[in-house]
Amino acid sequence: MLLGYGGEPGLDSGAVTDRSDRASDGRSAALLDWSRSLSPTTLPSTDSPGLVPPSGPDVVVAIPVRNEAERIAACLRALGEQTGLAPGRLGLVLFLNNCTDGTESIVAGLRASLPMPVRVITATYERAHAGWARRAAMDAAAAWIEAGPGTGTILTSDADSRVPPDWVARNLAALEAGADAVAGRVELAPEEAALLPPSLPARGKLEDTYDALITEIETCLDPDPHDPWPCHRTTIGASLAVRSGAYRQVGGMPEIPLGEDGAFVAALLQQGFRVRHPRDVVVTISARLSGRAPGGVADTIRARCEEPDALCDARMERVPRLMLRCWLRHRLRRLHRSGRMARDLAWARLLGVSAEEARRIAAMPRVGEAVAAAERASPRLVFRPVGPRHLPGQIRAARAALVMLRPVSRIAARLRRGDAAASVPPLSATAPGQ
């Protein structure tokens, strides 16, 4: 299903626990500033088990947690089963906010059994929301890395999710292949999905099929050399990875109540960072109908149960409109890179953008930022998603379009590779200086 686009007994002295936050919402509101200000001299220590290099882990998973007594154990056990990593590379930050259901006791009981060092932060804050919690967790992870090795990788997932044993390794492989960030896919827990109305999985299968087809169309008409097909377009906090330097450069996770994950990836892309969407990075998420974050996955599932004909995600438009959007994006990228976006305003007239706004957009230094701004400014590029009853016909149309697009795309890819090879000077037959 397409979704995307959460002195205490047993907590030993090694856990990073701000217990005073329970007594004062004012002090807990400052927790985010605390995590941002951590330095090598102020970062609290941890004595969690596991072989930890003197410099500390360079890969840290950040999990925001709120009232997950039923699912946190499965989440932590899955993280503890990660393979393909050298001992001591992996650390875990758990940001427990507003927990009132015994989650903290469960975490305390499991913490000693985990093979990686764990830092636990607790807070009570009446204005807490998903973006605030994820940012606090990821900021603490970034500070831990910066206090030790200096640079590394931050991963984030949800407390009701289960990651596969190779989740961290697959994310790191994508980063080592040249990406600055990795966005994974999700699938519903089968034991919970089986309890949903039959119409919902059927719709989800159609949406997944159409989403894969239109994603391939996008890669044909507006290719990203850093994110080639096969890929996907899901952006969800249950599976994100980012280099710590890139995380800081875009200002961290947006502190917004809803859609912080999508806004974060959009910021990375608009600032020129390479985001990979590999299809083989998949996390299992809960199919529950009552979630922790308003507007999150649980609300989406419940809304589609209550209204089976609700519109699909915004990007799931009719094929002709999608193809036009992709062509326009590609054209705008070429205009911006060539420096002609400000001189030739025909694109603005076509999109219904005023000349003043067009010049402001053209002056943006980054191509991704300019293209996104042009798309937002155009009244003619408002997304018009289809409903589920239109999906079978649009799937047929997308398949027909790809019959024509795939051969052309392969030829274009070969030409691009040839141009790239031609731009590399040949090696001299003799060593320099001889």
Automatic annotation (TrEMBL):
Xref: SUPFAM superfamilies: Nucleotide-diphospho-sugar transferases
GO CC annotation terms, alphabetical: plasma membrane
Protein name (Swiss-Prot/TrEMBL): Glycosyl transferase
Molecular function per GO: glycosyltransferase activity
Entry keyword annotation includes Glycosyltransferase: yes
Main location: membrane
Protein localization: Cell membrane
Classification via InterPro entries: Glyco_trans_2-like, Nucleotide-diphossugar_trans
PANTHER family: GLYCOSYLTRANSFERASE, GLYCOSYLTRANSFERASE 2-LIKE DOMAIN-CONTAINING PROTEIN
Domain Glycosyltransferase 2-like, residue spans: 61-194
Residue ranges of the region described as Disordered: 1-23
Keywords, sorted A to Z: Cell membrane, Glycosyltransferase, Membrane, Transferase
